[in-house]
Design a protein that fits this description.
heterodimer; A: 483 residues; alpha/beta; 15 helices; 13% strand; globular; B: 95 residues; mainly alpha; Histone, subunit A; 3 helices; 2 strands
């Protein structure tokens, strides 16, 4: 049995039929990590002892007839999500020696089924980046081409799933951080509606935009995992107490009658021809499967990137003010309290983090607030209205995920705006709060993956899983890198 | 637009960040070009009430005002760089 061929679903079946044990799954996952992680550097920390213990417990639960969908399934967690007792660096020197004192709600929920946490994965510092090149602990490499980036910020999670080190991984998504790396690494990437899943225990980036995300090999796996993560939380007042439907009931092979809108603004100049072609083939596939596909317009969607790079830095400048070297994390003493703040933050934060704190501080400072922040919040209303109008007519919207495939290391580091443009197709969802799913749609002639992005109305995640699953079945790609 | 060196200094002070001269020069250019990019929004007609940003379905999530034991204080205190007994130690604020 090849561990890299397993999915959450198929491994759970093997466990249920006693054809494999959780301990064996743990050992296979560990062996794979030992085999390939030197090459791709997806993990910042491997929780060998703890994972082994969890696997033994999972086997006991299964033996007692108390196994669930995720019992004994090895997975990885992005290193900006708190797992009690484990490191949570957020990819930053400032949290290098921090140990989480509690579990994030999504971790707590998942652990009720006793899956096995294999470790913590790499990311751009605090989630600020599109390539993992901004990690303070060195970049992750794309399993399809080690000279290229895996995307980001959840690049470690996407690479770990693509390389078959684990069966799924958790990411976060503030502007595309789970979806863009999924597209670049040929895996499924999912971002829920803002308010559908708890942010408690996610190290905050932009609190009005952040959501936990899922990286998986199949849409069905993403649905199985998210089923358990979803729901309101007393520790996150922005979650909504809406019932969570049974997502697996929506996984059907066709999309008959589904109305799909294709926004013309997303097929701009500058998109790589092969990316465009692969996405268009995917859209044609929806038509073959019975969907009604129409070109439409989201007139303000392309302003989302500008609004995002005002709203997000403003929230970053506020959220990251907590790193003051007093209660936890790096502390560089100064001759007085204030100098300690300056020293700690200047030595602890990387260049991109400082850049965004500076932008956010500027855009929210006296005299500039109205011109930047208030304006961006007004444009956010326009973008939300665009989506609301579109979803009166369409069930789903389908777009490319990123204008290009995985790029070479260093290619977009000289000019920050070049990196920001990577998110041009993904940020509008966070600005509008709507959910999105990225499904692998094909490989370019260079063998690089391209993902197609599906967007649904607020709290209609089931439509994403439905359409995504149908597309995946029809395309039947079975992507796997040669590592 | 051009961010002046004085503005870089002003923002850095507000953000509690130190930069050397080379970094400041680079930041000045980068901030200017990023603000130019995001400043494109200024040309958009957007006279909309900001209240439209609030989801009418959103409700306050309340929990009972009862004491819940979360973690041992020792676990939190162990993270602090400097402590004295059960207190986090900070430098004096008044000199």
């Amino acid at each position: 049995m090849d561990f890299t061929d397993l999915t959450v679903k198929s491994a759970a079946e093997l466990l249920a039929h006693k054809k494999i044990s959780a301990k064996e799954l743990f050992e296979m996952s560990l062996k794979r990590i030992r085999q390939v992680d030197d090459k791709i550097h997806a993990f910042l920390y491997v929780a060998q002892e703890q994972a082994k213990q969890q696997a033994v417990e999972a086997d006991q639960l299964i033996a007692d007839g108390e196994g669930f969908a995720l019992t004994g399934i090895p997975y990885a967690v992005k290193d900006n999500i708190l797992v009690k007792g484990m490191q949570a660096t957020a990819g930053s020197k400032i949290l290098e020696n921090y140990k989480a004192t509690y579990d994030a709600t999504v971790i707590k929920k998942l652990q009720l089924e006793n899956p096995v946490i294999m470790g913590k994965t790499n990311l751009d510092e605090f989630g600020m980046g599109v390539s993992t090149e901004n990690s303070a602990f060195g970049p992750t490499k794309n399993p399809y081409d080690l000279t290229r980036v895996p995307g980001g910020s959840s690049g470690g999670s996407a690479a770990a799933v693509a390389a078959g080190e684990v069966l799924f991984a958790l990411g976060t998504d503030t502007g595309g951080s789970s979806r863009q790396p999924a597209s670049l690494c040929g895996v499924v990437g999912f971002k829920p509606t803002y308010g559908r899943a708890s942010r408690y225990g996610l190290i905050p980036l932009g609190s009005s935009l952040d959501q936990p995300g899922v990286l998986a090999k199949t849409v069905e796996d993403a649905a199985i995992v998210f089923q358990i993560m979803a729901g309101s939380d007393v520790h996150d007042s922005t979650t909504l107490p809406k019932p969570v439907p049974d997502y697996s009931a929506f996984l059907k092979p066709d999309v008959k009658g589904l109305r799909v809108g294709v926004p013309k603004e997303y097929f701009i100049e500058g998109i790589q021809p092969e990316v465009r072609q692969i996405v268009e083939q995917g859209i044609a596939k929806f038509q073959d499967l019975g969907a009604i596909v129409e070109e439409m317009s989201l007139p303000n969607a392309m302003h989302a990137l500008s609004a995002y790079y005002i709203i997000l830095p403003v929230e970053i400048s506020a959220n990251l003010s907590r790193y003051d070297g007093i209660r936890y994390g790096l502390s560089v003493p100064g001759k007085n309290l204030e100098e300690g703040y300056f020293q700690t933050r200047s030595q602890g934060f990387g260049a991109e983090v400082k850049r965004r704190i500076m932008i956010g501080t500027y855009a929210s400072s006296a005299g500039y607030y109205d011109a930047y922040y208030k304006k961006a919040k007004q444009v956010q209303v326009l973008i939300k209205q665009d989506f609301a109008r579109a979803f009166e007519r369409y069930d789903l919207i389908v777009t490319p995920t990123s204008p290009s495939t995985a790029f070479k290391f260093g290619e977009k580091t000289a000019d920050p705006i070049q990196a920001y443009l990577e998110d041009i197709f993904t940020v509008a969802l966070n600005i509008a709060g709507v959910p999105g799913l990225v499904v692998p749609a094909g490989l370019t002639s260079q063998g690089l993956p391209v993902g197609l992005q599906i967007i649904a109305p607020h709290f209609a995640e089931e439509k994403l899983f439905w359409a995504g699953h149908a597309l995946e079945q029809a395309l039947n790609l079975k992507l796997k890198p040669n590592l | 637009m051009n961010i002046t060196p004085e503005e870089v200094d002003r923002i850095a002070k507000l953000a509690r960040l130190n930069f050397d001269q080379t970094q400041k020069k680079k930041l000045q250019e980068e901030l200017s070009s990023i603000l130019d990019y995001v400043g494109q929004l200024k040309s958009i007609e957007s006279k909309v009430p900001l209240a439209a940003n609030h989801d009418p379905a959103a409700v306050n999530l309340m929990r009972d005002d009862v004491v819940v034991v979360t973690a041992d204080p020792e676990e939190f205190l162990a993270q602090s760089p400097d402590r004295q007994g059960n207190f986090v130690k900070v430098k004096s604020i008044l000199e």
